[in-house]
Amino acid sequence: MIRADRYRCCGSGMCVLICPEVFDQDDSGLVVIDADAVRTADLALLRHAVSCCPGQALSEVDSAGAEKSAANERK
Ligand code: SF4
């Protein structure tokens, strides 16, 4: 599962470029996630989107909502 913190999203659109079937942007440019598409998306692509997010707005969480990885874990 992928979680987005829209307060951190800077509207770069990187996630949409990497995985357009899952990520979109609203009229303000902020990320929107298609939760249904996440279930069938390529996990490597989702993780790539998380790692490339310049706003550190995306994180991978488990089914209980605990964070597994986040863009801000980059070194
Ligand atoms: S890559 Fe990050 S900052 Fe850019 S639109 Fe997606 S969630 Fe927002």
UniProtKB/TrEMBL annotation:
Keyword Electron transport: yes
Alphabetic keyword roster: 3Fe-4S, Electron transport, Iron, Iron-sulfur, Metal-binding, Transport
Name of protein: Ferredoxin
PANTHER family tied to this protein: FERREDOXIN
4Fe-4S ferredoxin-type domain: residues covered: 1-28
Classification of source organism: Bacteria, Bacillati, Actinomycetota, Actinomycetes, Streptosporangiales
Cofactors demanded by this protein: [3Fe-4S] cluster
Annotated InterPro entries: 3Fe4S_ferredoxin (IPR001080), 4Fe4S_Fe-S-bd (IPR017896), Fe-S_cluster_ET (IPR051269)
Species whose genome carries this gene: Nonomuraea antimicrobica
Record flagged with keyword Iron-sulfur: yes
Function: Ferredoxins are iron-sulfur proteins that transfer electrons in a wide variety of metabolic reactions.
One Pfam match: Fer4_15
